[in-house]
Each structure stands twice: as structure tokens, then as C-alpha cells.
Amino acid sequence: MSMKMSAASCCSGVLDSIVHYVQYKLSIFREPPPKTLELRYFDIAGKGAPIRQVAAYIGAEFTDHRYKTREEFLVEDKPKLKFGQVPLLKAGFGPINIDMVQTTAIMRYLARAYGRKDLYPDGARGQIVDSLCDFEVDFALGESAIKYGERNGIILDEEATKKSIDAYVQVIKQKLELLDKCIANKPPMSEKDSPWLAGTKLPTIADFLWGCRLRGTASSLNTWGKSSEVDLSKFPNVKRFFDAYSSIPIVKKWSN
């Protein structure tokens, strides 16, 4: 009996060694980070800001190209884009250039390419980060419909726009309450007293995405004359997160 167990343990140890060796050899051939990066977007924060911030946070050198006019975007890039939208990240690998689109997908790519698992973790925690990113999309749907409805076939007259803004302000409060509870009920593997959304030691891509979103929504509320109707201090966990995000040095530099 003991000999069988010993043989099994030996085989298991050999198998583990083989697996580790293969993983090591494969890691040597991982795709290297791009040699050049160029982010093309409008001269606003919008969906470009979280990419700029993540790229700066990981120390990646990149060209921050901002269209001088909408005509420049329409002529130079829109006809060639996969989905007709920016941000566009042009990643250069020597003779090969790859155009990358969609904000969160670009942020995930940058974290992986530069080996920053703190920004985009593996496993269960990575799923939590993904879910937070997806919830940010849900949070912004109403704002996007009000501001850019015509692009998606939504036509609002002046009266309908006012009603939509009033209704969306209530939705913002509801979703901030959900986010506040989410932060309060962090997963078991969370760091103690972490201010970050996924309970991590350092910020993830979800934190940069949500930080930019909250800033953008605050700007929209101000434009609509509704700033006083959403008080972030009523959502203490969200407020604590946003203060921590705002204190990151590169956020101040790349806020727009």
C-alpha cells in the first residue's frame, strides 16, 4: 500500500515538474509589448481618458493623437475602423501594425501586454473586474442615449429630452446605490481596507474606467443643471473609491 502511494506521489511530482517546465518554456514565447503605440481620439476625456490613464500608469510610451476637427476623423479613420468608432489604438510591432478598438478591450490588452496582473488579474478576481466593467456600460446607457441618441436611431425633442434627463437622474442614484453595496460586500480574498472596486491592493482597469465615468457623469449633470440632485457623499463607499482614484498622480495629469 505504502509503495503504491509512494509511486503515485512520485508520478505526481514528475508531472508537476513537466507542467511547470512547459509553462516556463511557453512564457519565453509570449508576444512582446508593442514597439509603438498611438491612441487616436477626440480632444475630450470621453472614452479615451481611461485608456490614456492606464497607458500612463503602466509607463507605456504612446502618441496621444487628438483630432483637430470631426472632419479629420471622418476622412482619415472612420472608413477604416472595424465598428466605425474610436478610440483607436494603433499598436506597432516592427513591420506589423494592428488597429485595436473598443475601450475596455484596449485596456485589457495593455494590462496583459505589459504583464500587469494588478490591473487585470487572472481567475475569479478577473471575473469580478470584468463584471464591474460591464456594469459601467449599463450605468452609462441612459446618458449615452440622451447625448448621442441620434447615432442609434433615438430621436428626442426638447420636452422628451427634459423628461429623459429627470428620469435618468433617478437611475443614476439607483445604480450608485448598487455600486456602493458592491464595494461594501467585497469578495473574501479582498485586501483589508482596500478602497478599490474589486477589493484589490492596487487599482485595476475597472477603477480607471469607473473613475472616468463618474467624472463624465458629473460633467453631464452640471451641463443639465442637475449637479445638486446627485450627492456622492450619500454613497460613502463610492466616494471613498473616487477620492482614492482622484489622488493617483497620473489621473491629475490625464484627466482630459
From TrEMBL:
<dbReference type="InterPro" id="IPR004046">
    <property type="entry name" value="GST_C"/>
</dbReference>
<dbReference type="InterPro" id="IPR010987">
    <property type="entry name" value="Glutathione-S-Trfase_C-like"/>
</dbReference>
<dbReference type="GO" id="GO:0004364">
    <property type="term" value="F:glutathione transferase activity"/>
</dbReference>
<feature type="domain" description="GST C-terminal">
    <location>
        <begin position="122"/>
        <end position="256"/>
    </location>
</feature>
<comment type="similarity">
    <text>Belongs to the GST superfamily. Mu family.</text>
</comment>
<comment type="function">
    <text>Conjugation of reduced glutathione to a wide number of exogenous and endogenous hydrophobic electrophiles.</text>
</comment>
<dbReference type="InterPro" id="IPR050213">
    <property type="entry name" value="GST_superfamily"/>
</dbReference>
<dbReference type="Pfam" id="PF02798">
    <property type="entry name" value="GST_N"/>
</dbReference>
<dbReference type="InterPro" id="IPR036282">
    <property type="entry name" value="Glutathione-S-Trfase_C_sf"/>
</dbReference>
<dbReference type="InterPro" id="IPR004045">
    <property type="entry name" value="Glutathione_S-Trfase_N"/>
</dbReference>
<keyword id="KW-0808">Transferase</keyword>
<dbReference type="GO" id="GO:0006749">
    <property type="term" value="P:glutathione metabolic process"/>
</dbReference>
<protein>
    <recommendedName>
        <fullName>glutathione transferase</fullName>
        <ecNumber>2.5.1.18</ecNumber>
    </recommendedName>
</protein>
<dbReference type="InterPro" id="IPR036249">
    <property type="entry name" value="Thioredoxin-like_sf"/>
</dbReference>
<dbReference type="Pfam" id="PF14497">
    <property type="entry name" value="GST_C_3"/>
</dbReference>
<dbReference type="InterPro" id="IPR040079">
    <property type="entry name" value="Glutathione_S-Trfase"/>
</dbReference>
<feature type="domain" description="GST N-terminal">
    <location>
        <begin position="35"/>
        <end position="118"/>
    </location>
</feature>
